[in-house]
Design brief:
alpha+beta; 2 helices; globular
């Protein structure tokens, strides 16, 4: 099982103009509470595959296939 630890763009040491460039390149920005609601896991379907995005007790995000 492959695991990928994700960090938010805010945790990176970037200038404001670079952050704005990332946001416009992404096209859409979602707050994690919009994704998780009151849960701790969401299933994302991509190219016919299921991925699970989990919120850890430490507040980190883990994406698994």
């Amino acid at each position: 099982m492959n695991k990928l630890l994700l960090t938010s763009p805010e945790s990176l040491d970037l200038t404001l103009s670079t952050k704005q460039g990332i946001t416009s390149a992404i096209g859409q920005r979602l707050n994690s509470t919009e994704l998780f609601g009151t849960g701790r896991e969401v299933v994302i379907e991509h190219a016919g595959e299921e991925y699970r995005l989990r919120l850890t007790r430490q507040g980190k995000l883990i994406l698994t296939k």
